[in-house]
C-alpha cells in the first residue's frame, strides 16, 4: 500500500525551498515519483559538479572530494595534517554500519540465503568516507577524535545540568562524502567514473552520498549509477532537470566535452533524492536511502539514522539500525535526567565520531601527546 509524503520548507535561500512527494518504495518495483522544480534540481546537480570537478594540478586526487582526508586517516593517525595523505585511498569492506545492517536484517527474518547474498554484495562493495577541511579542522580543534573528550562532554551533559549543554555543532559548510566502489570490466570504463587499484583492478563509482551542514539538521543528498538494479526502489525524487541542462553544468565544471556528440560518463549518475526534514507537513516520515549503502533497506532515512550518532554512559551508542529508524529521534534518548538507560549526548549527526578511541590507542608511538589531554570541566570544548 502506497503512502504519500510531501515536505514544504521555507527559508531565506530560494534554492533551499524544497517541496516534493515521496511514494513508499517497494524493493524491485519502480517508485511512483513526483517532480521537483528545475531550480531545485539545478542546485543539487551544481553541488554534485562542485564535488566531482577535476583537479588538474594533481594526479593522485583527480576530483575535489578525492583531495579531502579520509576518516580512517583522521582517526588512525596521532597527529593528522591536512595535505598529502588525502591522496591515499583507504577503502573499507564491511563497516560497522553494514555489519549492523546484516544483523538487523537477520533479526527481521531475512532468509539465510538472502542474508548470505547481502553479505557477499557488501563484501564486493568498497567504501570510503572523506571530509572537507572545515569538518577536519573542527574535529581536530575540538579533540573529538579521542574517546576521553566524548566522555568529558557526556559527563558535563549528564551530571552537571546547571552548566550549558556542551556544543558539538560543526562549522557551517562542513561536508562529508561517502563513496561506494565496485570492480568493473575494462569495457565499462567509459560508463563509470573509476580508478585503478594498486593491484590493477578497475573500481567504478556506484554510489555517492553527501551530508552538508547548511542547516541545523544538515542537508542530505544521494546519487547512484543508473545501472544499479535496485536503484529504482531507492529513487525517491523525480529529477526535473533536462539532460541538456545537466550536461551544461558538467561542461561548466570541465566534467564533459562541449560537443554533445561526445560521451560523458557523469551523465550515467542519477539523483535518488534530497532530505532536510524528519517529517512532512502531514506528520509522516520522510525517507531517503541509497541501494549501495542501505542494501535491501529502502525504507530508511538518512537524517533519522545520523540523528542517532551519540555517546552515553559506559561509552554506549544508540543503535543505528532499528524498526524505528525513521522520523525524528525519541526525545527521551536525550533527556538530561540521569537514568540508567539515558541520557545520550547527540554528536551532531556525524556517525564517523563513533570511530573515536582512547588517546593512548591512537597515539601508541607518541604517548606523550596524550599528556596534553587535560580533563577540564570549564573548557568550552
Brief rundown of the structure:
The protein is of the alpha+beta class.
Poorly predicted runs: 1-34, 375-381
> Can you write the helix and strand succession as a string?
EEHEHHHEHHEEEEHHEHEEH
- Quickly count the helices: 10
Describe the sheet with the most strands: 7 strands, antiparallel
Radius of gyration, rounded? 21 Å
Measured as a percent range, the helix fraction is: 10-25%
Shape: globular
Number-wise, the strands total 11
Cα distance spanning the termini: 48 Å
Structural class: alpha+beta
Provide the residue-averaged pLDDT: 79
Q: Give the strand content.
A: 15-25%
Write the layout of secondary structure elements.
Blueprint: E1 4-8, E2 19-23, H1 38-52, E3 69-70, H2 71-76, H3 96-107, H4 112-124, E4 126-131, H5 133-141, H6 147-159, E5 175-183, E6 194-196, E7 202-212, E8 219-225, H7 231-234, H8 243-252, E9 269-275, H9 302-306, E10 310-311, E11 345-346, H10 359-362
Antiparallel strand pairs: 1-2, 3-4, 4-5, 5-7, 6-7, 7-8, 8-9, 10-11
Helix pairs in contact: 1-8, 3-4
Amino acid at each position: 500500500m502506497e503512502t504519500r509524503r510531501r515536505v514544504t520548507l521555507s527559508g531565506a535561500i530560494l534554492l533551499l525551498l524544497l517541496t516534493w512527494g515521496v511514494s513508499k518504495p517497494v524493493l524491485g518495483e519502480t517508485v511512483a515519483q513526483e517532480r521537483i522544480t528545475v531550480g531545485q534540481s539545478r542546485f543539487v546537480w551544481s553541488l554534485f559538479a562542485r564535488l566531482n570537478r577535476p583537479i588538474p594540478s594533481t594526479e593522485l586526487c583527480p576530483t575535489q572530494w578525492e583531495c579531502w582526508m579520509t576518516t580512517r586517516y583522521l582517526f588512525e593517525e596521532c597527529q593528522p595534517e591536512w595535505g598529502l595523505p588525502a591522496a591515499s585511498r583507504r577503502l573499507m569492506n564491511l563497516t560497522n554500519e553494514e555489519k549492523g545492517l546484516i544483523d538487523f536484517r537477520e533479526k527481521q527474518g531475512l532468509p539465510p540465503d538472502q542474508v548470505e547474498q547481502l553479505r557477499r554484495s557488501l563484501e564486493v562493495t568498497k567504501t570510503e568516507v572523506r571530509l572537507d577541511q572545515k569538518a577536519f579542522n573542527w574535529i581536530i580543534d575540538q579533540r573529538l577524535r579521542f574517546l576521553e573528550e566524548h566522555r568529558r562532554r557526556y559527563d558535563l551533559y549528564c551530571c552537571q545540568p546547571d552548566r550549558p549543554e556542551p556544543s558539538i555543532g560543526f562549522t557551517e559548510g562542513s561536508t562529508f562524502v561517502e563513496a561506494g566502489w565496485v570492480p568493473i570490466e575494462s569495457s565499462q570504463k567509459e560508463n563509470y567514473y573509476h580508478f585503478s587499484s594498486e593491484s590493477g583492478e578497475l573500481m567504478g563509482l556506484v554510489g555517492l552520498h553527501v551530508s552538508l551542514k547548511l542547516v541545523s539538521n544538515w542537508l542530505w543528498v544521494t546519487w547512484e549509477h543508473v545501472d544499479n538494479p535496485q536503484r529504482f526502489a531507492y529513487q525517491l525524487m523525480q529529477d526535473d532537470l533536462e539532460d541538456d541542462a545537466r550536461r551544461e553544468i558538467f561542461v561548466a565544471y570541465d566534467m564533459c566535452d562541449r560537443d554533445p556528440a561526445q560521451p560523458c560518463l557523469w551523465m550515467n549518475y542519477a539523483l535518488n533524492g534530497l532530505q532536510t526534514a524528519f517529517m512532512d507537513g502531514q506528520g509522516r516520515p520522510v525517507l531517503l536511502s541509497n541501494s549501495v549503502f542501505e542494501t535491501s533497506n529502502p525504507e530508511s532515512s538518512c537524517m533519522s539514522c545520523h540523528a542517532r550518532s551519540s555517546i552515553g554512559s559506559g561509552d554506549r551508542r544508540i543503535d543505528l539500525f532499528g524498526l524505528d529508524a525513521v522520523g525524528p529521534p525519541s526525545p527521551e534518548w536525550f533527556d538530561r535526567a540521569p537514568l540508567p538507560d539515558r541520557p545520550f549526548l547527540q554528536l551532531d549527526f556525524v556517525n564517523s565520531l563513533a570511530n573515536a578511541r582512547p588517546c593512548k590507542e591512537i597515539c601508541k608511538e607518541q604517548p606523550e601527546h596524550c599528556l596534553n589531554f587535560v580533563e577540564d570541566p570549564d573548557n568550552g570544548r
